[in-house]
Each structure stands twice: as C-alpha cells, then as structure tokens.
Amino acid sequence: MRVLFTSWAWPTHFYPMIPLAWAFRTAGHDVLVATQPAMTEAVTRAGLPVSAVGHSRDVGAAIRDVGGPRRPGTRSSGPADLRHLRSLNSRLYVRLAEEMIPGTLALARAWRPDLVVFEPTTYAGPVAAADLGVPAVRHLWGVDFPYLLREFDDEALAPLRARFDLDPLETTGAITVDVCPERMQVPPSPDVPVTVERLRARYLPYNGAAVMPGWLLTPPGRPRICVTGGTSWIHMTSGSLTGAIVEAAAKLDVEIVAAVTAEAARDMGPLPGNVRLVDGLALHLLLPSCAAFVSQGGMGSVMTALAYGVPQLVAPQVGDQALNAERLASTGAGRVVLPHEADPDTLRSHLAELLETPGYGEAAATLRAESEAQAAPARVVAELESLIGPRVRARRAAGSAKRTVSTVSTANTVPSVRAMPARPPARSLRVLFTPGYGGPGPARALVPLAWAFRLAGHEVRFAATPAMEREAGDAGLASVAVGEPADVGAALRAQLPAADECAALVTAQYHAGYGPALYLAKELADPSGELTPWALSYRDALVGSVERGLRLAGPAIGQTLEFARCWRPDLVVFGPRGYAGPLVARVLGVPAVRHLPGMDFGWITQAVEAAALEPLWARHGLADADMSGTVTIDPCPTGMQALDGSPRLPVRFVPHSGAPGPLPAGAGRVCVAMGAESWWLPEQQAVTGLVTAALEGAAEVSGTVEVTVEVTGESPSLAEALRGCDVLVTAGDDASLLTTVTAGVPALVLPQLPDHAWRAHQFAATGAGLVVPPAELTADRVRAAVAELLAGTGHRAPLRHLGREMAGRPTYHDVVAGLPGILGLAERVA
C-alpha cells in the first residue's frame, strides 16, 4: 500500500505522525511525505522520504500578518476567544492550503497513494484524497482543538471550495487517529455538527535529534525539574516565561534543566548554580528523569511529559495552549498559571505544590497508563489497512499471488517469524544497538529494525561512536556517544593501497569471484596450506584492516560495556564491525543478533576478527570470541547473498529514506550515485566526472544524465533520486544495490574498493545489471553498458525476480513480533 502523509511546515504538527509513518514502512508499505520546502530537511533527518510542494514562507510572519497570536486572559477559552482564533487560524490555514494544493495534487496523481494521512490543519491532504477517491485519515497532535472550531468551517473553507470546485470539503477524514488519552480529550460539542470516528492510539514521542548527553546517564541527586519555553511560538509571542520560571524554581532544593533555544538563553542573564541550560536536547530523553515539567503548554511538550507520567505546571501564552492546560488540569495531572499571575512567588508556590502533593504524580501515572493501553502504532496500521476498500485489496491480492517466497535453504534458516505464535514478553524489552565504526551505512541499516522495536513498545538505545551517533539520533532513536572523536575517514584511507594497485586488486577480486574467497576463508580459519599471491595480499590487507578497526573501536567497546552494565539490555543487535555487541551480550548473558546491511562478508572475515578479539575477550574471562551472533537478520535477496551455515531471518529491505517505487520514468534518465562515504570523495568525483562526460551527448545514450554524488548530509537519498530513473550507475555499496533492486532499476556497477568487488560479482551473477571493474574503466565501456541497460536486453526480468523475492519476505514488524519467541525472550523477561 502507498501512504501519503501531508503537513505544512510546522514541525510540532508533523512530529507526532512520524511513528505512524515508520510503522507503515516497517509493515512493508511505501510512504511519502508532502510538505513545504522549509520542512523537507526535518523529514529526511527522521529517515522518511519527502517531496516538496508549495513554497517556503516565514510562518511566524504569516501568523503576525493575520493578526496573532493573542494571549489568553482567563483560564477558559470561551466563544470569543475561539472565534478570534478561528478567524486567525482559518486565514492562515486556507492561505497555506492554497499554496500547497496544486503541488500536492500533482504529486498524488503521479504517485497514486491508497491512503492519505494529514495533520488536522493541512487541508491539502483531504483535497488530494477526495481527488483520487481514497480514504483520508486525520492524525491529531493531542487535544482536538480543530474539532472545537468546526462550527466556523463553512465560512473559512468557502475560498477553497470555490477555487478547487470542492463541495463538500470534509476536513475530519474517514477516521481520526487520536493520540490523546480519552480523559484529557475535549468532549463532543453540541455546536459542532459532525461526528468524529476515533481510533485511539498510543502517543510515541518524537522530538527531533535524540543524542543523549553523558550527564543524563547518572540519576539526579535531588528532584529534577525540566523548564522549557518551547520552540514553535518563541519568536511570535511578546516574551517567554522561561526566565521567570527559572528564577522561581532556583530557590527550591531542586535541579533545574532549562531546555531553551540559544537565543532565549542569551536573554536570561546570570543563572543560579542549580540551573543547567541545554539547547536541542530531545524532551523524550530528559523527561523520564524528571519529577516535574514546566512549559507554555505546547501540545508536543504536554504530550511528551504525559507519555512519561510527569506532573506538569503550564503557563499558557496563546489560545490553544490555554485549552491544552485546561484539559490537563481537569485530569489532576497538572496545574495552570495564567500570564497575569506568573510572578516568581506564585510560580514557586505552584511548583512546590506540584512536588509535594502525591496526587499530581498519581494522576500523571494514570494518564501514562491510559496512553500506553491505547493501540501501538503497528496495531494502528493494521486497523487503517481495513479502510483501503475492495479495490486496493484486490490489487494487492493479485500482486501477492505472483510473489516468490524467499528461497533461503532450510538448512540455515530459523523458523519463519510469520509462523511463530505471537508471544510478546511480559514486559517491554530493552534493546541495545551497536552499529560499529566507519561511515553512516552501518548505523543507517539498523534504523528500520530499531524503529520496529520502538513502535512495538520496547526501549531502544544506540551505543555509537561520535561519527555515527547522529544517524540514529536524527531518526529520533536515543543514542549514547561512546569512544573518542576520530578521523575515521583518514584511518580507512590508510588501509587502501596506491590508486593503480587498488584498481588492479579490485579488478582481480571481481574476476576471481567467490571461489577464491571461499578458499581464502578456509585458509584463514585453518592456515595449513600455501596461499596464492593474491590471497596472501588480501589476507594481509584484511588483518591490517581488522587491527586498525579494533584500535579505533577500543575505547568505544569499553564504554559500551560500561553503559550496558548500567542499562541492562535484554537483547543486543550489532552490525558488521560492531565488535562491542557480541562481547556485551556474552558478558551480560543475553542474546546477540547480527544485522547485515546487505551482502555478508562475515564468513571471510570472521576467523581474522575472532583471532584479533581473543585478547579482549580473555580480559573478561571469555573464550572463543564470536562475531556471528545467535541469529542473523538478512535483508539481501538470496540470489545476491553468499550463504554460510549461520541461522538467518530473511527480512524485507527498507531504504533509509526515499520512495521505494519509481514514478513514471523519463526517456533514458540515468542516475549517477557513487556511494555514501565522504572519506573517498575525490575518487567519487573522478569517476562521476568520467561517467557524465562519457554519457552527455552520446548518440547511443539518449535522454538525461542526472548526477547525484551521494555524500552524507549533502544530497537527497538514493531511493528518492531513483524515482523516475531508468539506470543507476553506482560503485556498489550495499544500500545502493538493495535500493536499486527495490526500485526495479538496473544498475551499472563500477567497483572502486575491495568490498565493492565481491558485491559487484554477486550482483552481476543475478543478471540484474552490468559491471566494469576499475582497471578496465573507459568512456567507451561506460557508454556501451548504459546503452545496453537502457535497451532493456534481459536485465528487467532478473530484477523483477529479485524484487518479488524481497516483497515476499517478512517485514521488520514481523521480525520484531516473532524474534522474542525465537530467542526465548518471552520466558526470559516474564
């Protein structure tokens, strides 16, 4: 199923939808986000595909232009306040919709989603759904403020109805995903002539980048209070109360953490000794350690504190915040201070009452329990699937009848996760991810599995080096920095021989294929014979690589073990070179799961790695260092994989971001993407230059060449770049090859590094593409290969076969549901 999410460029409206978007992805569906250009970066940081519609605007200026915001003067938002807010908001939302609707319609008509999910004030969503005749789902951020204002819709929406010939225009959708506990939600109003069908869903906080500072790993010595002025309205109100609140709390025997923007911090002046300022720290990392929370009542802040059962003091500044505060106070889980009451003495009195009266904490804990009892995001996806109707179900059934189930042999495959009974553990699991060292690839590969665990209600932590922690943290997954900052790129470059020698080695490896590699693996495990010069050279390079990797990872391994002893995970998931993972698992006596980013080289490197790791393991009283784990999760199609005897769980590959299926292709469009590792950027640029020069203007290659040098943080994702392309030119990293299979686009592989050679050989053997090794790379070879791929001579059928196998595999949702039973974790934590 294809699901289109729509939101205008207001992050706090979009963030609550991110868990549901990831739930659709981990359940095997395709997701695309349509938003204004100003928010595309925030979407891609969360690991989601995005398409920009409309244009960027200064939303704060737009709000001021239409007459707001207005501060509430009383605790209750009466009809006059509501009418003022609707007058303000309707003009803004209609203006935004008029800008977004043309682009959203064009995108939806091309991509053809089966379902549209929209935040309540993005009217482009229901307009697109009505245009296509598919269901629209309204996704709330918390208290249903837009519902209360429905009585004014006829007047507000008249311009949209007239301009786009929409009558009626229904803005409540077929169903509303409601993440607010029922006791806190606004009750039905007799003034609103519409009935809203609600699907109660668990609120799962996403507050942006989630990199955990070291001081948060130690419990506070006295009650910790988090104070924040929020980020959404900070530039649009006449001032923040954060400074006054900090002044009030400073005289209490508490620790204060003020989560404020850098600009707000500059305005606060000298601070007491019990105040810590933090900028950009995700609230869902901080609030679990807090005894109380003080905010202006923005819905993201209130709902995050609610999710962790923290009692709250709310000082609302604008009308919807007043409603949020009122509904929270009605549950007994917090107190409200209005702006005209917010002097330091009054604030201090309210805080003391909040800390000293057990009833507030008890009410907050009740709200948390009610929230956790609502449907998890994975269950919400199952409920929403029932909305798509007979037309889409019939189409999916026809497609699934053609699928080929994974052909991994039963000799090395664990029982199917789909066949395992659903036996969730008696409590949520703690899952530690250790991606290893290197570029962003290993961490990116683990993100879908980590999200699947989090969406199922489990706790997740990444223990990653400073160079990699942002990959998990940006996706909203709690990340702990381990090890010291290091120039990993320089270390990796030091492993490479000179350019000519490297090209010769890679070319020899490609032509040698897996036969010599299997022999090499055997000899490395039992070096009784004489190696060929090529194998000897490769062995020496491999040993040097592992030794350098261990030197880089050494501090991180020790710090990961120290963190794990405090956090006590139930399960450890590690990627290639994630040397800390198996050691931590063995020391703590918990299962270790190996997750592959693509093709498996462990059977070649394991003997060398085990020998290098033995001294480290011996220091902890352990023998037989092992990097194979209890089970391996494998996203690589069988035809591209080299299989050993280790137990494997096949899983459907999920690109880090980008739409998995291409839009209608252009005429001869070629995407050149030479990898995602910035440490060999000069080589990327050189090969990209050769390829583009070879293809531009070539008579045998018609159409467009789109150059996309994939460097972390500086370009769109490859999956996004492949939309509408007919050929990919790539160096052959795992993510590129798996993404091209998912997109159904044949590839020309130009391997440049030793590990590229193995992948190129296996990929070419499937028939899904062509390979030109570096020692044979010329402009004529590139032109001929691309022309052959564009002609479609025999490469599309193997791609379809690989794609069908991948589509028939279990999803990450299936894996997380079945893994506890396979590993015996249901009994372990009962």
Number of DSSP helices? 33
Helical content, roughly? 40-55%
DSSP summary, beta strand count: 26
Low-confidence stretches: 72-77, 233-239, 399-412, 658-666, 709-716
**Numbering strands along the chain, what is their spatial order in the largest sheet?**
8-17-16-15-18-19-20-21
Taking Cα atoms only, what radius of gyration do you get, to the nearest Å?
28 Å
Topology, pairings included?
Blueprint: E1 2-6, H1 11-14, H2 18-26, E2 30-35, H3 40-45, E3 50-52, H4 59-65, H5 79-111, E4 115-118, H6 124-132, E5 136-139, H7 145-148, H8 153-164, E6 175-178, E7 198-200, E8 211-212, E9 224-228, H9 242-249, E10 255-259, H10 262-266, E11 275-278, H11 283-286, E12 292-295, H12 299-307, E13 312-314, H13 319-330, E14 334-336, H14 344-356, H15 358-373, H16 377-385, H17 389-400, E15 430-434, H18 441-455, E16 459-464, H19 469-474, E17 479-481, H20 488-494, H21 499-512, H22 514-525, H23 533-567, E18 571-574, H24 580-588, E19 592-595, H25 602-619, E20 631-634, E21 648-650, E22 670-673, H26 681-695, E23 705-707, H27 718-721, E24 727-730, H28 734-743, E25 747-749, H29 754-766, E26 769-771, H30 779-791, H31 796-807, H32 812-823, H33 825-828
Helix pairs in contact: 2-16, 2-18, 5-6, 5-8, 9-14, 18-32, 21-29, 22-25, 23-24, 23-25, 26-30
Structure description:
This protein is α/β, with parallel strands linked by helices and 830 residues long. Helices cover 45% and strands 12% of the residues. It is built from 33 helices and 26 strands. The strands form four sheets. The chain has an eight-stranded parallel beta sheet with strand order 8-17-16-15-18-19-20-21, sandwiched between helices. Strand 25 (747-749), helix 29 and strand 26 (769-771) form a beta-alpha-beta unit. The chain is globular, with a radius of gyration of 28 Å. Residues 72-77, 233-239, 399-412, 658-666 and 709-716 have low confidence and may be disordered.
